Amino acid sequence: GNNIIVKDLADKIGVSPSQIISKLIGLGVMVNQNQSIDSDMAVIVAEEFGVELTIQETVEESVESIEEKFSLDYEDDPKDLKARAPIVTVMGHVDHGKTSLLDAIKETSVTKSEAGGITQHIGAYAVNINNKKICFLDTPGHEAFTSMRARGAQITDIAILVVAADDGVMPQTIEAINHAKAANVPIIVAINKMDKPTANVDRIKQELVENGLVPEDWGGETITVPVSAKNREGIEDILEMILLVAEIQELKANPNRNAVGTIIEAQLDKGKGPLATVLVQKGTLQVGDMVVSGSSFGRVRAMLDDKGKRVKKAGPSTPVVILGLSEVPNAGELLYAVDDEKTARIIGEKNKEIIRAEQMRSDQKISLDDLFERI
Ligand code: GDP
Ligand code: MG
């Protein structure tokens, strides 16, 4: 049901918060004036003061309902959609070579002039292959599918499943397959560590079949690519396969609208303030835009690309680091560009209230649980 903050209840009844609190203690409920109690409890307390409280069932506000209210993430007209680069996540069992493969891809695709600048880690990077772009999420694939999806957002277009050729399908491999299948994301299997003498491709393919992934050359639909991240072999092949799968998907977004993106990672920089890596998904994010993400808002003061270079604009499927937010946003949260500062502030502050209320509710739940434990 609905919750009411003790202080507000006291105001409504016309008594002091401490009077309410002592009644609540009498009822076995320990709360302070800033915490909330549920509406049934509020009715009982009000009765004790001879006040009949009627509960109005209000629609509970949430960060999602605010998004809707301000139509932050409206549908685009199909005629405004343009092709965009695929967003790829690498998944697989520990030590099968996810990090090594991402590093190999980075090195293969970086031109000499860019080398050196790419050392910084921002959680995502874009590579160019045959004049086409691919965006890789550099976060552990598992997180990309869990925390990133906490808000229902689906940011991955293609999953690369890394399986070590000398080890085979392992528990986290199966977990990764399940995540990708649940999200309806196509899987490309990178059979890694092909340089090892004990590498056994047929055994890996057999194990894939046992887990519902039938390789193309065995009559199925799963693309498998033998690679060696260590020796930089098969890297171009896997990039080409990604582009092929992406082409079939016909990925599109409208670049000419207020930007919508997802926070990939964020931290506080002592000198620069809150820094957030945003993966732009729709629209074009520009320096000077007003943005809001949860309770964090502000004007984009500067943007850096994945090579640390200053940029003015970032279109769909582009990762950028932005400066100018009022506080550090949460990874997985959506970020919206809005028309003006006032709108950003209103949404940010509304979200702050909602998040605080949710926090209070869970705090209250904890204190009640503690109380029962003591009883
Ligand atoms: P992750 O846990 O999946 O990110 O795996 P890493 O990329 O950290 O690799 C785990 C270990 O396997 C490291 O010691 C790598 O050097 C090694 N490794 C990764 N790829 C290859 C490969 O293609 N061949 C060989 N021989 N070793 C590899
Ligand atoms: Mg790793």
UniProtKB/TrEMBL annotation:
It is found in: Cytoplasm. One of its GO terms (cellular component) is cytosol. The gene is infB. GTP binds at residues 92-99, 138-142, 192-195. The lineage of its organism: Bacteria, Bacillati, Bacillota, Tissierellia, Tissierellales. Residues 83-250 form the Tr-type G domain. The keyword GTP-binding applies. Residues 86-234 are annotated as: G-domain. One of the essential components for the initiation of protein synthesis. Protects formylmethionyl-tRNA from spontaneous hydrolysis and promotes its binding to the 30S ribosomal subunits. Also involved in the hydrolysis of GTP during the formation of the 70S ribosomal complex. It comes from Tissierella pigra. Its main location: cytoplasm. Keywords: Cytoplasm, GTP-binding, Initiation factor, Nucleotide-binding, Protein biosynthesis. This is Translation initiation factor IF-2. Belongs to the TRAFAC class translation factor GTPase superfamily. Classic translation factor GTPase family. IF-2 subfamily. The keyword Glycoprotein does not apply. GO terms for molecular function: GTP binding; GTPase activity; translation initiation factor activity.
